[in-house]
Amino acid sequence: MCSPHMSTRSSIQPTPHQEANTLPRLSFFHQSTSLPSLGHSLSTSTLLTHLNTDTDLSQNQPIQQHYAIQVPKTPSIARVSTTNFRNLSSETTRGSNTSSKRFNAPLPTRNSVQGRPYPPHLPLKFSILRPHCPAQDRLAVWKPLQSRRSFSNSPSLIIDCEDSARISTVIEARWDKSTRETYGSGLLTFHSWCDSRNVPELEHCPVSHITLITFIASCSGSYSASALRNMVHGIHAWHTLHGQPWSVVRSELDAVLGGGGKLAPISSKKAPRPPVTVEIIKAVYQKLNLNTPLDAAVYACLTTIFWSTSRVGEFTLPSLKSFDSQLHIKRSNIRQGFDRNNLQVTIFHLPHTKCSPTGEDVYWASQSGVADPNAALNNHLLLNNPSNEEFLFSYSSNSGRHPLTRNCFLTRINNALSSSNLPPIQGHSLRIGSVLEYLLRGIPFDVVKSLGRWSSEAFTKYLREHAIVIAPYIQDSAFQERFLQYTMPPVR
């Protein structure tokens, strides 16, 4: 069960784990975390009622500048759960009419996970509205002072507690865990800044335009352009999830974000990732022993990711115990496909991806030489023989069966590269290298776009050797005519 984060003056200590801190210390935050003694106070019981029943605290109460909550003297109050996920399909609440079975189907419940302490440079004043929880849960668990029903403009439809909770749960399902973690981190930064500037709780949400752009301007110079954008997206998502109005002047916000991006510190700007090439894959091959289970799994995974233009996270796991048969690829997700010319491709169905909760297909064809993904995959399947319902790239060791994790995968590859005096690679380098390899072969841009499953032109940012990729398209007419015969479909 999550415990509310408390001031350093509180007698309740946060959990011993440390939240990853990759952000620089910000000078605009006040280090004092003392509780404000401001105006009208709300009792702890009233706030707990608000969290569990979605009561609107701004109604039937004077509109206060802020509220002060006495820190509980016993840890029992601090450990009160702030989520109340009821069985929303219960017929006792909606009647036993058989037609109601079409409505209010059961929704996922939230697992109780301990949150890590917040970074020291992001102090947060104690508030029952913002209990301590993991970053991925903050969008839903952290509550605004006003409820969704405060802004309901329907004169006839009554939005009760279960309706409001169900709406929020359904909206939250829109964002993947990684997105919710990113948004939750930005939300922590926003509330910490508001506390440092004594912004009243009622003005945290709905946020005013001037408050938002002042916050972004304060962060500029300490964060990267993408971090600033993600903060805004996180605050906007929080408003959307809780049914709060979003009144922001887009033109001025874009201008502030653009200026903040240019003022980003040099340390926040990463150099472009170098692409993995076929030659690098061959160098890895020379240093691996494909007769050992781990190396066989690693090399099969490497060639599959590269030739299918996939992400590393789509064929590896974040941890040894994170395998979920509904989310991750299994041996049973492989099939063969043939076109009308009997050309064969191997198809991998990814049950769940970042851009498609219902899954996507990726594929590759056999290649010549030692970088052939077909030979590598067959070697892995023969040596490790994962079952149909087991994670595809599982391997055997002295301690038993293990799924291939992202860290193990990259570590083994980079060790092989290091022994060849080659620089290490990063996960995204494989996807970048795949785009470059296919473009250098003369494959049209729209085909590469489809292969990598891009819905926009974002993949063009992966181009590294622009001149070499474009070279065939800008030659004299005689060469270009021969080249286009192979790269462009005939005109009918």
Automatic annotation (TrEMBL):
The keyword DNA-binding applies. The keyword DNA-binding applies. GO terms for biological process: DNA integration; DNA recombination. Keywords: DNA recombination, DNA-binding. SUPFAM superfamilies: DNA breaking-rejoining enzymes, lambda integrase-like, N-terminal domain. Signal peptide: none annotated. Residues 88-102 have a biased composition (Polar residues). GO terms for molecular function: DNA binding. Residues 88-116 are annotated as: Disordered. It comes from the Eukaryota. PANTHER family: P CELL-TYPE AGGLUTINATION PROTEIN MAP4-LIKE-RELATED, PHAGE_INTEGRASE DOMAIN-CONTAINING PROTEIN. This is DNA breaking-rejoining enzyme. It comes from Crepidotus variabilis.
